[in-house]
Fold:
Amino acid sequence: MSIIVNCLEKTITFDGVTYPCRIGKNGFVSGVKGREGDGKTPCGDYQIRFGLYRDDRLPSPPPGDMKFMALQPDDGWCDDPEDRAYNRFIRLPYPASHERLHREDGAYDIVLVFSHNDGPPQKNLGSAVFLHVAQPDDRATLGCVAVSPDIMVKLVRFAQNGTILTII
Structure:
């Protein structure tokens, strides 16, 4: 079982079906050559670790076999390469640069966290690279992979913890 993102075609394929997706606003790069804040989606083979969701917007965890945790208003992700919590889940307020996970725009209503730069994180290799819900205006991401809400519903029914995500 795998999920394949084709950055050139801006597609995601799983369960034998191909759908449109969004990638980084500056294109894509080999996962080992990406840099923090470059706006590029890192290519490589990853494992889906777990999911996050907004329980104030969704009545229960998304259906399927994946482990999901409900996001809280004080949840964040550190994106400061000099901080000990770089590319890690944190609680807000936090003194270093970070991304707020409890967002109002809907992009993080459902998030799949995958193994990009997490074993252990290397400085400046990139952080907070997720598979998440796309913005309704069809804009590119800052390096993540994003899909429409209806595709995300199909995806979470298919994916499991450990599912391989290949970004090419």
The longest strand covers residues 41-53. The chain has a mean pLDDT of 97.
